[in-house]
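Figure-free illustration: sequence to structure, shown twice.
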Amino acid sequence: MKPHRWVYDEPEIPFELDVLYEDSGIIVVDKPHFLATMPRGMWYRQTALIRLRERYGEPDITPAHRLDRMTAGVLVFVRDPELRRAYQMLFQNRQASKVYECLAPCVPVSRPRTGTLTRLEPPRPFPLLRRSHIVKDRGRLQAYEIPGVANAQTLIERHAWSSAEASGRRRLARYVLRPHTGKTHQLRVHMASLGMPIVGDDLYPTITTRTYDDFSRPLELVARSLEFDDPVTGEHREFVSQMPLGCRSRTEPDVSR
C-alpha cells in the first residue's frame, strides 16, 4: 500500500468493527457503514485496514477485496503476506459467491435506457436479470451506463415488504442482489436504473451533498453473505453479516431477514 498523507482532522466513525472469523492466514470482519476499507482521501485511521493493523499490531494485514465506504457487511483481510495472492485471486477470478441485501422503493420497475432486463419467471415481476455496460471515469464520482456489450450482471430478487417510511410517502421492499460481476457501484447503478434507488444513496440517481461526519442516514446496502472454497486449506467457508438493514423503530419491523 502506498504511503498515505497525514490527516489532521479526521472524524471518528462511531461504529465497531466486529471480527467474524480469524486464523493464521485471514481475518473476516463485519464492516459497518461509513467505514472505508482502506485509506483514501481524508480517511486514514478511521478505516477497516488501519483499525485491524493497530488492533493486532500486524502491519502486513491487507484486504483481499473491497467494499465501498457506504456499504456494510462481510470483508476479508489477509494477514500472511505469503498467502495474499491466493486470496486476492479468489476474488479477482470471481470464485467467491456474494449475496447482498438492500432496501429500496417498492414500485413498478422502470424500463432502463440501455442494457437488458429479463424476467426469469414470467409473468412474475421478480426475479430479474439486469445486464448493462458500466464505466467509471477517474475523478468522476458516479459510474454510468452506456450502450455496448454487457460487462455487469446482477440477479435481483424481491423478498419482503416493509411498512411505510416514517414520512408515510412510500413503501419499501427488501431486495436480494446477486452480482455475477464486480464493477464499481454496480448494484447501486443497476437499482437506480430500474427506478428503485437504494435508500440512503447519496450518489444515485443524483448526487446529494452531506458532511463527512453525518452518519444519520446510511446506505441501506449490506454484503450479507460470502462463500468460497479456501484456496489454502480447501475448506468451504461461509460467512454471514449481522449488520441490520433498515431503520428500527417500535412501529417498523426488521426486514433484514
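We now fold a second protein in the same way, so the two outputs can be compared directly.
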Amino acid sequence: MTAYPAWTPASRPGIVPLHPLGFGTILGRSFVALRQNPKVLLGFALCVQVVGYLVLLAAIGGVALASFSRLETLQPGTDDFDAVLAGSIAATGITAFVFGLGSQALGVIVQGVVVGEVASAVIAEKPTLGEVWRRVKPVAWRLVGYSFLLAFATLLVIAVVGALLFAVGLAALPLAIVLGILAVLGAIPLSLWLTTKLLLVPAVIILEHARIRDAVPRSWRLTRDRFWSTLGVLVIVSVTFSAIAQVVSIPLSLVSTGFTTVISPTGEPEPGAIVGFIVSTLLTQAATLLVQCVAVIVQSTATALIYVDCRMRHEGLDLDLRAYVERRDAGATDLADPFRENVGRVVGPRPPQYGYPAPGYAAPGYGAPAYPAPGYPPAGGYPAPYPPQPQPQPQPQGAAPQGVPNAAAENPAQTAPAQTDPAAAHTPSASAPAPPADAAPTRWAAPGDGS
C-alpha cells in the first residue's frame, strides 16, 4: 500500500510574498507593516523615544539652569563673568553631547527591535516584545558600537575638512569660501552613496549575528545591483516624513503664536502668555516626536525588507524561508533560524517571472530539469512530445496506392476480369492443404506446465 502524506492547510502568508520583491512592494509594505504588530512596533518605539527625549531635555535644561544662574551674581565684563560663562557653555555642550549619544543608542535599539520583528513578520510570525528582545540582545552592543563609530567618523571628517578650510581661509578667504561651497555640494551625493551602501549593516548584525568588520563589506556586496532602488526607497520615505513633519508643526506654531498674541497683545511677559507658550510648544514637540517615531519605524521596516530582497536575489533566501514555513506548519519544532542558514550562498540567475522556472533553470536542491517555457524548443536530447508524421502524397487517378504492387502491370493477362463459376466459390480449392488426419486437438495449458 502506498502511504500518502496527511493533508495540511496552506501556509500563512507573511507581510510580503516569498520571492524577490519589486520597488513598489518594498515601498508599500514599509508603510503598512506597522499594522502587523503595533504593540511591539509603535508602542515600544514610542515609549523609548519619549523617555529618551524627556531625559535629554531634563539633563540639558538642568545643567544649563544650574550653570547660567551663577552669572546673575557676577558683574558683566569681569574676568570671573567670562570664566563662568565659558564654563557654563562647555558644561551644557558636554551634557548635550553625552546624553545625545545615549539618545542615539536608544534609537539604534529601537531600529534593531523593528528589524527583528519585521523579519518574523516575513515568515508570518507575530512574536512578543520579549521574544524580539532575546533575538536582539546578544548583538545590542554591536549595534550601539557601530552607531558610535559612524558618528565619530562623520565628526572626524567634518573636523578635518573644517580645519583645512580654516587654514586656506587664513591665506585666501575667497578661495576658502569657494572650496567650502564645493565641499558642501560634494558631501550630498557622497553621503547618499555611503548611506545606501551601508544601509544593511544593522540588519546583517541583527539577523546574522555578524561582527561589525564582517557586516560592513557584506552590506556593500548585498546592495550590489540594487543601489538605485534602495536609494529611491530611502529618499521617498525621508521626503514623505519631512513633509508630514512640516505639515504638523507649521499649523501648531501658528496656533501658538496666535494664542500668545491674544493673551498678551502688548508683548509683555504675563503669566498667562508664558503658560500658553509652554503648552503650545510642548504640543508641537509631542506631535513632531510622534512623526519622528513613525518615521524611524518605517525606515527600519524598509531596511529589513531591502535586506530580505537582496538576499533572495543573491543567495536564494526565499527557498530557505519557504522550506522553513512548510516544516513549521507541518508541525516540526526546534527549527533553525532561516536567516542564519546558507549565508553567502551563490545562486544562478533568477527566472524572469517569479513562480515559473526559466528555460534551463533549476532551483538549488532540486535535481529535475526545468520544463521549457511556452514558445521555447524542448531541451536537447529529449524527443518532442508528438513527432511529426509523414503526410500521404496525392496519387494520380487509377494508380495503385504506395506500398501495394500493381498486379496489372506485372501480369497483363489478368487485366480483364475472369469469368468465375458462382458454385466454385463455395467449393474447397484443390490446392488448399488438408489438415493431417492424426492431428490432436489443441488444448490450453497453464504456464509452466510441461505437457
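Summary for the second example: The CA atoms of residues 258 and 265 lie 10 Å apart.
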